[in-house]
Each structure stands twice: as structure tokens, then as C-alpha cells.
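User: Predict the complex.
Assistant: Input components as received:
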Amino acid sequence: MLLPSPAGEQALPDFLPPPSSLRDETAQPLVLGRWFVGALASGLLLWAFGAEFVNSIEPEQFDEKIGRHLPRPGAKLRFRSEGWATTRYASHGLLADDVEAKASFAVGVWGDSFIQSAHVDDDEKFGARFRERWVGQPTVTTVAVGYPGRAVADVVALLPRYEAIKNFSAHVVVLPDLFDVSPNGTTFIERPRFEFSEHRREPPWPALRERLARSRLDFLWTPIHRLFVAHRNPIGSEPLRWRVGPVPTEANRWRRWPELYDVDPAAWQFALRELRASTDAPLAILYAPRVPYLDDGRVLLEHPVADLAARFGAMCRQEGIEFIDLSGALAAHFESSGRTPMGFHNGRIGRGHLNGDGQKVLADALILWASRVLDGEGSASAVHPD
Amino acid sequence: MLFTQIEFAGLFLVCLIATRWLPSARARQSLLLLASYYFYAFWDWRFLGLILLSTGVDYAVGVGLRTTNAPRRRRAFLVTSLVVNLGLLVSFKYFDFFVESLAATLAPLGWNPQGLDLVLPIGISFYTFQTLSYTIDVYRGRLEATDDPLEFALFVGFFPQLVAGPIVRASHLLPQFRQDRGPTLERLLVGFRQFSFGFFKKVFIADRVAVFVDGVFVDAGAFGMGTTWLAVAAYAVQIYADFSGYSDMAIGAARMLGYDFDENFRHPFRATSLTDFWHRWHISLSTWLRDYLYIPLGGSRRGSTRTYVNLMLTMLLGGLWHGAAFHFLVWGAWHGSVLCIERWLRGRNFEFAGLTGWVWSMLVVLVGWVFFRAQDLDAARRMLAAMFGVESAGIDWWHPFAIGAVAVVALWHVALGTRLRALRSWPVGSWLTPVLIFFLLGLCLAFPVGNPNPFIYFQF
């Protein structure tokens, strides 16, 4: 049975409450009251919704030994915007699973968000895959030291500090992009002088983040951050801009190859030398570019800067750093499975971070390298279950 | 300025408060005109000159038409308006397209004409059509020309519909400006409800679906058949949510200020033929094309062959109106051809209806969107080849939000066939309305997309 409808509006299904007529002026305060209460009630709904669907805020604390703001021991990061995962942290920003693993040989795996791997659950991360697939003695584990935005310069600074608190037997620096070697480029100075200097970034509004995290009001952080901290439009990460013509969809947003080819090789050499000097342990650079590479509908199994990567690899070896190019393994995985190792269904397939498939490919490559390192010491071998 | 920009909220609030308290309709008109010009100039103040030129010329033409009955003079006035308005539109929107097309043809002869490389002023297609409808209506004697320049300037520049419609007729809007209108609580809440739904459709649905759609279209041919079909369906949802969202925001904003616009969309994905689709999609444009192009060309009054020609011409120009590119022209030709086929079948007592009609119309519309959205004709070809299993690299991408959005929009269109359609006008006095509205707005803020997209129809 339908309720009687107000003038100009259609009949309502039974489950809807009867409206108050706004034409009746005495009802107006009641309606305004309902809107006020409704706004509050919607906040409760958002709170409940946000608890599952919004990335959580994990307030960072300054780690005296590492010299960086890092997630607290015991923190749990809920990540939903690319992939769907939860990550547990131990002390010094290390992953809890890596720290809890019992092993006599630890390989430090360094990098940016690729290595942080917040996009996949702990049991799908390359570290878990590594431990799962590693067979033989001694027991080996990887310890991921990844944080968004890090480059080789960060590794140079942080590697000795982590070695002081944990016993690493070898290190691998994972580079998804050659820009991470020398992100500032050096093309305009005739005789450049290279140096690394440390700049500490303070996280914005720590007290507010802390309070929001404690109250489980994570969903408020993004709009607040964008409106007041980043001074940007609250519904987007960049100021809204006009673009007339086709809606902007660049085929290759990351195609900065000319800039990459312009980088002074001396800058790379400097970074590699500094990196090599930062530790005595065996050291490798693992290059994991976006392969397969989608280029205007074509699927390329070789990354467009493969020639440059080969030159970079030769430079690494010259500096006493082993260079592992994962391109072939990533391409082979795609060819055999039809699945891209990078990108998530809720993000952008073929672009983005290593997904579950990519983590396995990375784990396999690390197993091979760790086996070789151990073979060099003549004491261990790795057997791959598959 | 965009409706989704924080600056708009400030401007709108000022307008709302001022129009509530300003004592006369005249004062309100002045304020709204200033606000409208500020709204437009926020993008680039230099292009205000075009609006002022168009406004000045059409106001003068209207006054001229009002003062003379001589057919030759009246025709001269009309031609002046057409030349100025279409001249601006052609210069800014189509000149480079024609020159580049010509250059491609003449290249073998060694002649290489250069375009003007002009920036397309936002909303020029919309306000040009709006002012043209005014002068044509006055010329035809269907509308009395206004002698109030302020009122006319506001009709052209009224900010809720300035940059992306709906294309409001003068006969509908001018009388409202003369009435003593202003915000009331009921108008405020009803308008806010519609604005909020539009905001949600644009920011939460269209912009998020765009991430998937853009990814598939930009690498057309790399994805498998299922993914490509999903992307095309998702694009249908995106453009619907984007443009009907804009229309909802425009209508809602105008209503809050005390003015009424007609609806621009009527559940287009319930259409059971392409003809039906055009009665539901971008209604203000389709009725404009009907009244000012199709019917003056002769409509269906001059025999069947001429009717088909008129239909094709109307849709080809409708395609070009959307953009100066061959893929828009092909989109128009596709729609024109199918409309001709449907007309031919109707002449033989066959009419698409029911489920068959729905499947037919959706197929036609989706294939049409491929031409509409693709970067160029080659990308459209690759998309179609993937959709029909001819050629693709076969990568699968099942974007959960896109799947959800397509499902929700489909279910919503199904629900509109039941009594649940009453939800469209959920009473603003009920408890649940504010909960729902603020929840939807909260979702937009808590789940922003990385790079917000401008409204798709701003480019037209």
C-alpha cells in the first residue's frame, strides 16, 4: 500500500517514512532538525564504512637509530587504494613477518613502495614467498626495508644504520625505474660535483594524525590533508586544471625516456660507488622494470629503455655490484600465465606496483641470487619446489 | 570554475545569501550576472569578451527584430546573429580541424596550410546554441524580444548552465527572471538534494570509473574481449554519470537560487530503440537539433528520401557539435544511419520494443560510444576488433568498481520501471534523505580519485 504523496512528488514505497510538508511553516524547524541529525548520522555510517574501505593512518614516530620517521612497532597498515591488503610492522619500520622469521642468513631487500609492498597481504609478499619456497640449509630470510619514494641515496644513508641493529649477510637494492638511481638528474652542469646530503622530512600534522588514528576516524584524514595541509582541492590530489580537448589520458605517463638518456653517467657512477662503499656484504641491484610494457595497445616484452639498462648493468659490475635484470623473468611469467606481474584490478593493470604474481617472480629471483651467494661460500643450495 | 571546486562553494554561498536578502529582482539579477561572469572568468578572463560579444550582438538583433516587420531587414538581422555566433564557433572550434583535413589532402601537392591553433573557449557550443535559439525564436515570432540588457545578459551567462548546459530556451528562463523568485527552504533543500546526487555521480562514480575506462581505451587492443566490453559499458556509465551529474548540479544550483530548468536526462538506458534513446539523452540538445535544424531542413514533410537525408545531416552535425574530429563525425553518422534504419522499419510496421528493443538500442549505443570515446579512428577500430574477438592481446582486467558501477546503474534503470522510481524524489522532509545525502557527499570526500577529471562535456 502506498503512502499518500505530497504535491508534486511521486507515491513512496511503504518502507519510506512520511515526509513533513515544507509548505507548512511550523514544520520547518522540525525538518531542519532532521537534516542536522541526518548529517550526524551520516558521519556514523561513514565511520563504519571507512573502517573497512579507507586506507588507515599509521602515525609515524622518529626512530633515533635509523634517523627517520617510521611506523611504530605493532602498527597495522590497512591499504585499499591499490590492491587490498594489511601489513604488520615490527620495530624500525621492518615487516613483522620478516623480523619474526627464524633464519641464520638475512638478505636485506631495499627499495621504495615496490619493496614496502603494502598492496599485498603479508602472506603474499615476496618475503613470505621466499621463505615458503626456500629449501635447504642454512635457513634464509629476506628483510624488506622499503618505504615510498626512496632512492639509492636513501639506501646509502640507511644501510649502515640498519646493519648496526641487525645482522645482514647480503643486500639487494630493487629498482623499478632507473630514475631511482639519480632522481635529480645532472645535465646542465659542465663539471658537476656530486654529493648526498640528508634531509629529514617531518610528517605533516602528527598530533592530528595521532588523534584521528586513535579515534578510528581515518576517513577524515584525506579531505583534511588535501584541504588544509596540501592546500589542494579536497576531492583530488592535484589542483583542478582545465584541459580542453580529449579528456587527458596519456598513453605513457611515465615516458620520460629522453630525460633518462640525458642523465650524466657520472651521477650514476657516483651513486653506485657510494652504495658499494656503504657495506662490505655481497650486494646486488635488481632491476624490475614495467614488463610487459603496454604502449598504445601493443604489448612489449622488452622495456623501451632496455639498452640503457644494459649500460647501467655494466656500470654496476664495474663498481663491484652484481646486476640482475628481472625483465626476462617478468616477460616469461606474462607469456606463460597471461597475467601481468604489475598492477591490480582496482588500480591499473600492467602499471603500478608488483601484485601477487610479481611478488612470486621477485621471490624466485631472490632465491636464485641468494643461492649463488651461498654457493660462493660453498655451503648452501636452493631447490625450487616448482 | 567547476561545481566540484571548493571556490564554487564560496561563490555559491555568497549568491545564496545575497539573493535571499536583496530586496528587488533587479538587484538579484545584477548580482547573479556579476557572479556568472566571475564564474566564467575564473578559467580565463579574456574569453569573457566572446560572451560579451555574443550577448551584445544578439541583444541588438533582438531589439532590431522587435522594431521592424520588414522581411528583408528581419532576415538581415537573423543572418547577422548567425554569422557572428557560428563564425565564433567555427573559428574557435572547427577552423583548425578543417585546415588540418585540407592539409592532409593537399600535402601531395606540396601545399601545407596552417591552423590558428586557438584554445577552445569553455562552453562556447552551449551558449552559442542558447543565444541562437533566442534570435531564431524572436525571428519566427514565437518569442517577444527583451528590451532589458541586464535580463538578456543573465540569460546568456547564468552560471549554473553557462559552460555545459542544459541548453535553456529563452521562453523558459526569461519569464523566471522577471518574477520575484528567490531561495525558500523547500527550494533550497530540493535543489541541494539534486545537486548532491549530481556531485556524487560525477565525483564518486564518473571519476572513479574513468580510471578503468581510460586505461583500456588508451591501450585499445591490449585487453581481452570481456574486459573491452566492460570498458565500453563502463564508459556509458561514466559519460552518463558525468554529464547527467553536471546537469543535476546545474539544475539543483539554479533551483536553490529560485529558478527552474527542465530535466536533461530521462533514464537513457531504459531506451528500447535509438529513437527512444534520443528522447532520453541530452534532451536539451536533441530538442534543439530537432527544432532549429531537423525541422527547418524539412523534417519528415518532404518525402522519405529527404527525411533520411535530414536525419543524417542532423546527426552528422550533432556529432560535429561534440568535437572537431573524424571520430565524432563517424559517431554522428552511426547514429544517423541507425535512426534511418529504425524509421525505415517503422514504415514497414516493425518497431523495436521490449527486451529485443533494449538489447538492440544498448548494442547500438555502446558501439557508438567506442567512436565517441576513442582517441582516433584507429583506436576505435582496435577496440571494436577486441570487442568482437577479431584481434587482441587478451589481457584481462576486471575492475571491481567498474563492475559495481555498471551493475548499480543497470539495476537503477530496472528499478525505475517499478514503484521504486519514487526514490528519485525522496522527500526532503524525511529522516532518511539527509542521512543519505551527507553519506554520499562524505564518500566523495573520503574516497577522492587521484586526478580529478574536468567534466567531459566541457570539451564540447
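The CA atoms of residues 268 and 312 of chain A lie 8 Å apart.
Let me know if you want any component modeled separately.
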